[in-house]
Amino acid sequence: MKKQALAEPAHLAADLKELKLPSVMTHWERLAEEAHRKRQSHPEYLADLMHAEVNDRRERRIARLIREAHFPVLKTLDGFDFAAQTSVERDAVLALADARFVSEHHNVVLMGEVGTGKTHLAIALGLAACQREHRVRFATAAELTNMLVEAKEQGKLSRKLEQLARFELFVLDELGYVPFDKLGADLLFSFVSRVYERRSLVVTTNLPFARWSEVFLDATAAAAVIDRIVHHATILKTEGESYRLKEAKRRVPRKGRTAS
Ligand code: ADP
Ligand code: MG
Predict the structure, then answer these.
(1) Euclidean distance between CA atoms 150 and 104, whole angstroms
(2) CA-based max dimension of the chain
(3) What mean pLDDT do residues 114-132 have?
């Protein structure tokens, strides 16, 4: 028997539009049929319908936070092969996934050679924080420094710092790959001082702390940055061979064998 479509009550669409409840519009009919089938009471139907609106809204909010974070690609903790990266403790990383470190203004430093999963983990932690509805921003150290230098040139440095400090978690990728000039180093220092104990940082770096003076151009500035970052921080060292290299080696058939 063909199902009879429910008649749409007059004014419903217009009222929902005015009240900005688009998901109620999307779901009212399906949930009404479901309520009929399950013999739900009116209050139960109403509660389910409101719940659908709340869930959809939350999903849209999270999608917006993920877009605003500017992740270069999306990586997840589920997609991280902890068996291939045994120097970081799985439990220590998973303990960060609830993003409590963001509420507590704690930092995470991921330190290791190229290809060992630092950016992957940094993005995954950022994404987990978005899913907990925190405001997150991802940028490489070079990108952040350029942003700050440009703002300073335009006389808008304090506004830029204020704008960046609104993010609850800043993922600062690739500290150490490119050395800064004096201005860049000073501006990055200002940024770190600004967010210290107010916001969270996830920093990835290929340099041990002893070599940060090469990036900040002077040992005192480097010591001050390190001091602020590590004051409340989880430090994770990613060691071993590059994951990409390992994968590539696995794919290349060994000599004497024919690829099938
Ligand atoms: P790094 O930032 O340390 O140079 P990446 O995080 O960019 O390294 O890792 C390089 C590539 O290898 C990425 O595509 C990343 O997703 C992948 N990768 C690295 N380590 C792992 C791992 N343990 N499990 C799954 N993928 C990994
Ligand atoms: Mg990286």
Answers:
(1) 31
(2) 80
(3) 97
**For the segment 28-57, what is each residue's pLDDT rounded down to a tens digit?**
999 999 999 999 999 999 999 999 999 999
CA 197 to chain CA centroid, nearest Å: 19
Compute the distance between CA of residue 77 and CA of residue 209 in angstroms, rounded to an integer: 26
Please list, in sequence order, all residues whose beta carbon lies within 8 angstroms of the beta carbon of residue 81, skipping any fewer than 6 positions away.
243
Q: Which of 171, 238, 243 to mutate to test the pocket of ligand 1 (most atoms within 8 A of CB)?
A: 243
In contact, 6 and 36? CB cutoff 8 Å: no
CB distance 145 to ligand 1 below 6 Å: no
Shortest-distance atom of ligand 1 to CA 173: 2
What does the alpha-carbon distance between residue 142 and residue 132 come to, in Å, rounded to a whole number? 28
* Burial class, 40, CB count within 10 angstroms (exposed 0-12 / middle 13-18 / buried 19+): middle
Question: For ligand 1, what atom is nearest to the CA of residue 123?
Answer: 6
Distance CA 208, CA 212 (A): 7
Tell me the mean pLDDT in the region 193-218. 92
